[in-house]
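Long-time lurker, first post. I've been practising inverse folding by hand and with some scripts of my own, and I keep getting stuck on stretches where the structure tokens seem ambiguous. Below is the full token string for one chain I'm working on. Before anyone asks, I'm not after the true native sequence, just a reasonable design that respects the backbone. If someone could post their per-position residues I'd love to compare against what I wrote down in my notebook.
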């Protein structure tokens, strides 16, 4: 690769009014780091290091960076790591989703502003992979994803434990009075038994799988556990691959097409992936001018059974998926319905990559076949109706079959605070027929569209043995959660969507087979209520919160900022 003023250390000069001086002074400061002239004449690979003491999922990054650097150096390039924002899911208030776009902006601008010829996106926890992809697609330099990898499972009384489907299951049992404090403390110390991302098919596992499916990660990279030697070998291979991608000028706009995203959607459906992925994929695709609509997800979902037997839809964990062949084996089983001409970051087409992959081995029960799927019906269903004019989502594979068609009276909570204050009150007028409705928990109302959509079952019903109810909101839900939960209602209540007009006792009808969620209130009455909706007070008066509130788009558009 020939270095000129558009490549290597000489690109993107700091403006001192004299380009030759800018190169001279930059080299002088680079020498302060200890680099030699030989090193400074090489192509540069940036490594986005999102290690943080506030991100438990990214604690293996120093090992991965060491392996990455071996791979990059072996191909004659110079690796330079740099930090961006890191978003640790359980350490960030009010919710990481509010900062996904900030991280995307940070990633994009730092790739653009600093002298690098390509970049490795080192992420993992839920919002980090979509944020990095959004930023890298906009920057459009050769980029490749490397993720932390999933945690390995823990153990409690001989049973495997995984974050965070089992966190929620045990919490529900605790609320129902079936577990005591001592048991809960013991489980608490075993739910997350290593570094790495949540080891069920939650959002982190899903987004890693989709990065691989769309061709932005080397084959096999999504499922290898964080602590396995294979993950380090994969990191080393990623280092070699990014240099090759630079030499072939494989920038994201040359790798990705609508077909790449359709492949990702098909994999999303086959793995029973997280509802959050619909928002993230839509936002990522928009960064290179590709419009994905809920109709795209719905159409592909209709043709794709759930094949992967992982929690929360099934029973296994990511380490089992890795042992069974990982995402390449899932894609092999889907091969006939994938766009095999799609380009991938290793320069081969998807079809060429899949030539080396065997079909799902018979000895395992983790990756099912199309002839014997885990679920015939699709995992995620898009819903429409007068309650969600621009759509809503339900994770059908994690819902209770007897509630997929349900009509019941609404029990309305006007905010997350209202929900917390009243849900467990002994006098709450609620039966298992009720539909619990949460308003003002969307992108603007939440704020940040928190994962509050997994509304708790009232304690008095839990203690009576009720495990699931229909729940509806404009919030999101963790990919690790389960239940008959309608999410992402768009437009949200806080911007005047019909969800804001629901009142206690109104009948709501959910009909998942017919993709419908309806408020059974006549149009005149609904119109009158809509005219009288009072928007909630804004959450922010200054800073990023104001920028976020004024520019975040609704869920069906991906919740990106309207100016990005
Ligand atoms: Fe990071 Fe679950 S908390 S992936």
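-- Answer (accepted) --
I ran through it position by position. Result:
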């Amino acid at each position: 690769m020939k270095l000129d003023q558009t490549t290597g250390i000489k690109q993107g000069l700091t403006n001192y009014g004299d380009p030759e001086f800018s190169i001279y002074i930059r080299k002088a400061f680079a020498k302060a780091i200890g680099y030699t002239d030989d090193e400074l004449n090489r192509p540069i690979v940036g490594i986005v290091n999102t290690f943080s003491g506030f991100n438990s999922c990214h604690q293996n990054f120093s090992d991965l960076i060491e392996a990455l650097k071996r791979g990059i150096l072996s191909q004659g390039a110079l690796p330079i790591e740099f930090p961006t924002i890191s978003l640790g899911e359980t350490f960030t208030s009010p919710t990481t989703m509010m900062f996904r776009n900030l991280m995307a902006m940070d990633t994009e601008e730092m790739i653009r502003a600093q002298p690098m010829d390509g970049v490795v996106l080192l992420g993992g926890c839920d919002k980090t992979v979509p944020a990095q992809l959004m930023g890298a697609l906009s920057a459009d330099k050769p980029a490749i994803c490397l993720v932390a990898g999933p945690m390995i499972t823990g153990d409690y009384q001989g049973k495997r434990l995984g974050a965070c489907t089992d966190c929620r299951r045990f919490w529900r049992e605790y609320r129902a009075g079936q577990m005591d404090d001592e048991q809960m403390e013991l489980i608490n110390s075993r739910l997350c038994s290593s570094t790495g991302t949540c080891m069920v098919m939650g959002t982190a596992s899903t987004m890693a799988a989709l990065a691989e499916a769309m061709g932005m990660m080397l084959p096999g990279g999504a499922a290898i556990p964080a602590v396995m030697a294979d993950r380090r070998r994969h990191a080393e291979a990623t280092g070699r691959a990014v240099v090759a991608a630079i030499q072939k000028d494989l920038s994201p706009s040359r790798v990705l097409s609508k077909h790449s995203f359709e492949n990702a959607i098909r994999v999303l459906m086959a793995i029973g992936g997280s509802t959050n992925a619909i928002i993230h994929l839509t936002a990522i695709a928009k960064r290179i001018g590709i419009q994905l609509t809920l109709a795209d997800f719905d159409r592909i979902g209709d043709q794709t059974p759930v094949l992967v037997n992982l929690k929360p839809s099934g029973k296994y964990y990511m380490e089992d998926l890795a042992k069974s062949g990982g995402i390449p084996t899932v894609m092999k089983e889907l091969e006939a319905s994938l766009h095999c001409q799609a380009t991938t970051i290793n320069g081969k087409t998807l079809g060429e990559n899949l030539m080396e992959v065997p079909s799902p081995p018979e000895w395992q029960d983790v990756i099912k076949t199309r002839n014997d799927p885990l679920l015939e019906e699709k995992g995620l269903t898009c819903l429409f109706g007068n309650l969600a004019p621009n759509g809503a989502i339900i994770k059908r594979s994690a819902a209770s079959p007897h509630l997929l068609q349900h009509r019941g009276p609404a029990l309305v909570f006007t905010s997350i605070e209202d929900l917390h204050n009243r849900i467990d009150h002994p006098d709450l007028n609620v039966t298992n027929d009720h539909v619990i409705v949460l308003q003002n928990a969307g992108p603007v109302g939440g704020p940040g569209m928190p994962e509050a959509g997994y509304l708790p079952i009232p304690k008095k019903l839990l203690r009576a043995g009720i495990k699931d109810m229909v729940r509806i909101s404009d919030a999101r839900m963790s990919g690790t959660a389960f239940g008959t939960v309608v999410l992402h209602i768009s437009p949200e209540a806080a911007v005047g969507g019909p969800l804001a007009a629901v009142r206690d006792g109104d009948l709501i009808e959910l009909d998942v087979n017919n993709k419908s969620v309806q408020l059974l209130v006549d149009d005149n009455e609904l119109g009158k209520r809509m005219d009288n909706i009072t928007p909630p007070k804004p959450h922010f008066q200054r800073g990023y919160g104001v920028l976020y509130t004024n520019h975040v788009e609704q869920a069906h558009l991906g919740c990106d900022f309207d100016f990005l």
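A couple of notes from the structure itself: The pocket of FE2/S2 (inorganic) cluster is lined by residues 57, 89-90, 125-126, 197-198, 202, 204 (CB under 6 Å). The mean pLDDT is 95. Happy to go over any region you disagree with.
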